[in-house]
Batch of 3 targets.
Target 1
Amino acid sequence: MSDHSDHPSYLGHHYDTVEQQFDSGKLGMWLFLATEILLFAGLFCAYAIYRKNHPEVFIYAHQFLDKNLGGINTLVLITSSFTMAMAVRMAQLGKKQATAGLLALTLLGGVGFLGIKAVEYEHKWKHGLLWGTKYRDQDAEHGTPGEHGGEHGTEGETAPGEHSLRLSLPGVEIAHAAEDAGHGAAGNEATSGEAAANGTEHAADGTEHSASGDATMSEGAAAEGAQMDASADESGEPAPIVGGEAMPHSGLAKGASQPQGMAAPAEAGEGHGTGHKPSNVHIFFGIYFLMTGLHGLHVIAGMGAISWVLIRTLRGDFSAEYSTPVDLVGLYWHLVDLVWIYLFPLLYLIH
Amino acid sequence: MTTTTYDGHAEEKNYLNAKPGIWSWLTTLDHKRIGVMYLISILFAFFLGGMLALLVRTELLTPGKTIVDADTYNQLFTLHGAIMIFLFIIPGIPAAIGNFVLPLMLGAKDVAFPRLNLLSWYLWITGAVFAIVSMVVGAVDTGWTFYTPYSTQTSTQVINMTMGVFILGFSSIFTGLNFVVTIHKLRPAGMTWWRMPLMLWGLYATAIIQVLATPVLGITLLLLVAERALGVGIFDPSLGGDPLLYQHFFWFYSHPAVYIMILPAMGVISELISVHSRKTIFGYHAIALSSVAIAAFSFIVWGHHMFTAMSPMGNMIFSALTFSVSIPSAVKTFNWLATLYRGHIRLNAPMLYALAFIFLFGIGGLTGLFLGALATDIHLHDTYFIVAHFHYVMFGGTVIAFLGGIHHWWPKMFGRMYNENLARIACLLIFLGFNFTFFTQFILGTMGMPRRYYDYIDTFATLHQFSTMGSYIMAVGFFLTAGYLIHSLVAGERAVENPWGAATLEWRTASPPIEHNFHETPDANYPYDYSVNRYNPETGNYDYIGPSRVDDHGHAVGFHGAESTT
Ligand SMILES: [Cu+2]
């Protein structure tokens, strides 16, 4: 035991066997992942608390997020998780070329994710859809209706499917009812303030109302062509034309003050709890940027780790006997993906 | 079997002189050297925090201004708290003493991730630099808890300080992670869970809290930085945020953190009590499991810091949970007392500190019940009663145990004996000074003196002066300690392998240990079976003679797994 001469170079002097070292590394990485989850848990708590306390803010503000880009990013990350898993397998089999190729692909996924994220951030930045003191009142924005119209078309497409994703927070349900009430009201040309008040009062009726809301939305969904335009557009600049197209589908006249139309600049006044424009919208964006920002930093860290094992792979450090670092980095990358898989519905697919 | 002492190898290199030069220290992966580097670092922080405490107490010598103005006073007590907590007490026993003894007690060659271990020391240094820079640039004045909205509105260096604490948090997480994995995966054959010394159970429970609670502090501080730097508004009511949320987040970490501070101290005390009364520990399993129970409870009591801001139902639940923490704590205390009963008590410095711990921690724990009870807490919260209670637990508990541990393991760490009589005198000075300082504060608190106040009415003057005098007595005790410990490094008597007759494994290698800890992995015996040693009057060493008892299953204790060590 005290004889170290039979220790392979990759086995630490304080370990007796390769398995012991591998098990230790694995346990250590799992513990580290637990700390990462707890780090995000703080933000998830903040999210839950503010969503419960200010459901209207979340319902209103999430519509400024681009579901298509978010969805594409989800696919990108899931794919990169797959290539990472393959890379780990190839490393275990000692296939150096395949491992390196798959790691490079994974890295590419990370680059793609960050690129798309940067596009999304740029939008928000341009329109002042930011946190706290940096938030600019959307009424003053010009590009917004276009972007929003586009978003809205998307909304029509995704809405029916969203039911499965709906959270069962009581507060959220109430807000949801309020929103749907708003929908109906818009159709009836009622003023939004009344409608929203109604919706809140009759929160218990939320389900009925949401039925009507869905009907409205499926109209939007029917307009597939408009959808395409909208989604194509959203990766770039928001174009007012698209908005113009999409908005009629959802039964929205420009300036109509139902909740989803809140971006329409004409209406919108500083309604405190009047339904069409909740106060403190910036809270959502604060949480959005904190969560996605911290996640983005983790993506960058993960990419750093992947680059490191990629270099070591190319250098020939690993073999069928020893590829622990690839395994561990793989675990980390899966966690990064997992966090996003929670962030995406919580932030983008609120209903 | 290796029962040899290495007295014959007087010239053999040890971990201190195995590699020369400062660079070999700064790049070392040896847990013992990292432990020593931690020890030096945290003692520096302790000195700094102690000086700040003396300034605070001096300012409070008279009502109104004594030496500094009110703003400076706010900065002094904030820095005292933040430095003592984040730079000294939290890393104190685990990172300094724990790093040194954990692999040795386990019979391992190192911790599981030596590089990570070194990284956590560098993170500590980085965090400390942040904290100290903030001191120079514009010291924080919010109190060590950084409560919002103070911390979002003050003009002082909150971001600098909280980033420092954030980094220190990661240092703490990595140490904890390292210890958990080491204890799970690096126990040699024969070292079963139930042969682990209670120190290791204490460190294990601590490490679990470090790993599971510290990330929440991390995100809390990140949110605070985001709040201040970017104006996110999460904690700002004018932006729709909730300032109380900060307190929930903060205490979700910081209550468990007080167990990060006290659990390893309890581990130290379990060793000292047993070794220095030369009696097997009473209730080994109960002490071990109560550490884990305390760790579990620690996560569900944070609400007791917000009794004045929660619903009555929430208050009652948190109050009841808080009381239940006292059960495992009392289990330990009674087991220590039972261990002392009819032991061969050796009244040296480690034992004196252990006895002081039981006494002071007893007071600290019992006064905690006053604060856990809703009715009395409403009266006592935010008074000096809190300050006194907190110091009885943190100083009377953790720092006293730290001092006891330092004396106990000093011969192993540096291979030198300290001056026992001076150590006894210093211990007495610290004990008396401490009680003068803080017992008066219990009285001040019940009389209504609010904590953190710069000024006070004349009625409180005498007690405040008494308290300040006590702090000066403590300071004398500490300077004396520093003096004889430093002196021992150059002129102390050389320590033998096992001067105390302890039965844990770290005493079965040279003092100081060789670089790889053991020539051969030692066979683990029950750690409190003192029949494995025999005193050798010629060398003053307790020679290892191997276990003479058989255990419940008829096996010779200590010989399990012996085959794997050859
Ligand atoms: Cu507490």
Target 2
Amino acid sequence: MTELQYKETVVFERPTALTPTQTTYCPGCTHGVAHRLIAEVIDEMGIRDDTIGVAPVGCAVFAYRFFDVDFVEAAHGRAPAMATGIKRSLPDRFVFTYQGDGDLVSIGMAEITHAAARGENITVIFINNANYGMTGGQMAPTTLPGQKTTSSPTGRDVELAGYPIQMAELIASIQGTSYVVRRSLHDARNIRQAKKAIRTAFEVQKRGLGFAMVELLSTCPTNWHLTPPDAMNWLKENMLPVYPLGDYKIHDAVKSAGI
Amino acid sequence: MPAKGKIVVNDFYCKACGLCVSVCPTQVIQLAPERLNVRGYHPAEQFQDGCIACATCAMVCPDAAITVYRLTPVAEQEA
Ligand SMILES: Cc1ncc(C[n+]2csc(CCOP(=O)(O)OP(=O)(O)O)c2C)c(N)n1
Ligand code: SF4
Ligand code: SF4
Ligand code: SF4
């Protein structure tokens, strides 16, 4: 009897908008998933030659090495200001920022807020991992009440350090914005939904419909002191109640564009 | 009958995080017990048949290390 022959069809492969480089992220860190999703969207829209990324300060400081598109590196928190300048001078390019919660919600709070208020036609990918990853896991504005970090060793005390800032809700309340949603990277189903949102955010920019931000709940297994699978569960159980997933702003113009 | 598939993990990118192992519905992935990649990680590998090409592993892989294939039987050619 002869063995059955099989035809092989690729169902999934590494996107070409990622460079053939090992990233600097820790094993199991979902920064890598967010990168892959952005690269998949760039591939699917065929915009690799027309995209300019703006990298943050934080673990994603080397993002420009990992994407095979043009990239600049912003000063800490200033990515939305840099993206504003680039988009206004090169309006036919797709300009996106990639920022952590220390970068976007602490030192960069002014830049993101005003870029949103101006309704800049840029795409913001915001990675919320509830701490400062790069510098050793300090408390961020997004750290959960009671969460232990290196600078809140007994847990975040809201009397002392305030409450977590819910960025998607805050930015959505600004009149100038067009598309503001929160998604999560803790399992395959949510990752697929995150990709759809990233695609929509780029489609909004393509049609000149204004400011789009996708907040992505993300893991930091290293500073959370958890294995990568346990970090996925920790996100699901602890972050989802504080950061509900959802569409916080979809402007009528985005709705009627059918994207 | 579920689809038949296989995965190939690119050792160069894999960091042995184990996420793919933890999500595979048919449990056909392991971290290679005897093999190391250039960074000293035990890379993930498909160690037995049963892959259904669902791509759940590839979806959670932070290092885009996994290629997923669907396998379809080819009709026997007449001689
Ligand atoms: C002006 C300035 N202030 C402070 C720092 C130190 N610093 C580097 S990264 C970082 C925060 C990073 O956290 P986040 O944006 O959440 O990104 P993550 O590393 O978690 O991805 C800080 C405070 C700096 N590099 N520059
Ligand atoms: S420190 Fe945290 S956020 Fe930074 S790469 Fe490692 S796991 Fe990811
Ligand atoms: S998810 Fe990716 S990086 Fe992690 S063990 Fe599997 S193949 Fe390796
Ligand atoms: S494609 Fe699905 S069944 Fe096949 S190895 Fe990956 S997770 Fe398992």
Target 3
Amino acid sequence: MASNEEILAGLAEIVNEETGLAPEAVELDKSFTDDLDIDSISMMTIVVNAEEKFGVRIPDEEVKNLKTVGDAVDFIANAQA
Amino acid sequence: MRQSQLREHSRILGMGAFRPDVIVTNDDVCQWIESSDEWIRQRTGIVTRHRAGADTSVVDMAEGAALEALEKAGIEASQLGAVIVSTVSHPYATPSAAAALADRLGATPAPAFDISAACAGYCYGIAQGDALVRSGAAEYVLVVGAEKLSDVIDNSERTISFLLGDGAGAVVIGPSDTPGIGPSVWGSDGSKWDVIGMTHSLSDVRELSLAAEAAGSLSAAAAERDEDGKKLWPTLRQDGQSVFRWAVWEMAKVAQRALDEAGVKPEELAAFVPHQANMRIIDEMIKQLKLPESVAVARDIADAGNTSAASIPLATHRLLQENPQLSGGLALQIGFGAGLVFGAQVIVLP
Ligand SMILES: CC(C)(COP(=O)(O)OP(=O)(O)OC[C@H]1O[C@@H](n2cnc3c(N)ncnc32)[C@H](O)[C@@H]1OP(=O)(O)O)[C@@H](O)C(=O)NCCC(=O)NCCS
């Protein structure tokens, strides 16, 4: 079971791997599309990698609700609980 | 009683391609759907796709590719022990495109049949061809991937029409003294039957057309959509996100298994030829497979779009044309698509 801080760090690593964005830039209140400039295709790749890393299932229809980094952290934390 | 004599090895002896000459740009596409050149390039890497004109059929394109493959292989059509065409856009449920092709080439009475495995069709064909040659059922097998997808798309369908193109690629498979086709890792997942496919069935067409006939206007029904949004003629549609996720995630594993089963390490590959579905899928697979930069990657999609069963042989053909030194090297190929179905193998490039 990962803490929210660990999930955030893990997500930042995945985002960095996919986009080259500095991990520090991946903050809870940042919107994936508007602030981090991540397109829908990169988002799918990030989701797939997050599923693997955190051992959770993020259904297709859930992805569009994950607007901010915080949304994703919360979803993963709940799914792990 | 006797059974046929087994052979130890098979390989691809020669390859051919047919690219139809109508070029459709992203700007052309944007007249049909709300999109932009930039969006399409960024999300898919596609710049143009080719389309066949009204007078060019799936069999015509298959013939063009097959003639070159036979010539390169140095094989006469009469020597073919089987003719296989992978296609989802031959517009007859029966008879097959393969039977017509065999006749045109002069391969009659070779057994001839079509494979319906969408974008995995070519790899399914290689699996079949390899098995037929090694089992002794045939000495030489022609495998063609041929698609006229422009016949089965609705230009205004935003989920898929902008991705697709027409074309054909062909190979001749025959006996070999050394291993030339690695074990095929192939399969299906029909639980995802719905994520990519035709809008409706031929039975629906019959009902729609009977209803239109009763109402006295078949042509109006062909142009209008019914209440489910169906036009009379069935066309392709997809849930792009589901397909994308499945492709990058599950397919990288399938490609890895094809490497493992062939006993080949990524650094031993000369080339990687994934189905040309989306440049972003290709890039992600390269990452997941940890392919070194020394591996040449087929990126024909930029010019050709997604040509379903034709995409892998077209992309391989081009790679060899532009880099003749790759000939004799190992290539990892993987096809995946509607079904869902998938197929992968390591092959020796002809
Ligand atoms: C088809 C594909 C490019 C669509 O990209 P996507 O990022 O999944 O697109 P989405 O449907 O999530 O839509 C994301 C945004 O792009 C827009 N969009 C969708 N299709 C579009 C198009 N053709 N042109 C422009 N914009 C489009 C959507 O309206 C949406 O905008 P919004 O965020 O403002 O609402 C992508 O899903 C894909 O390539 N999937 C794999 C499909 C494949 O390869 N199939 C064949 C396998 S054989």
